[in-house]
Design a protein that fits this description.
By secondary structure, this protein is an alpha+beta fold. The protein has a domain of 89 residues: Double Stranded RNA Binding Domain. Helices cover 47% and strands 15% of the residues. A three-stranded antiparallel β-sheet has the order 1-2-3. The termini are far apart.
Length: 130
Amino acid sequence: MKNFSKELSFKTSRSSGAGGQNVNKVETAVTVLWKVDVSEFFNEDEKILIQNKLKNRINAEGYLFMTVSESRTQLMNKNKAIEKIIETVNKALIIPKKRTATKPSKAQKQKRLDSKKKLSDKKENRRFRF
């Protein structure tokens, strides 16, 4: 993934939330940006798959972006952002297997009917008779 990380660009910003004076003066939040269309790391089919699966995370200019502000240091947030974007792209590239329809076997059908009959008999025995 060394080549992939060269295609990433970064922006820093001030983190939100608790943290005292450090939050107000230090830009520790890191936003990682990746232009999907111009990537040389993936072929056209993979790019289309990524764009389709991650269309909600890709903006109008074609950038996939993520903001990380988990840590108090910019370097740790940058590393975490790289990990997250690689993980997200890898998940997007997974093609799920097609489900093949199967029918229940005769034994399974019989077992189901037997359990239904057993329950029915149990409830029948509970009924009040004169």
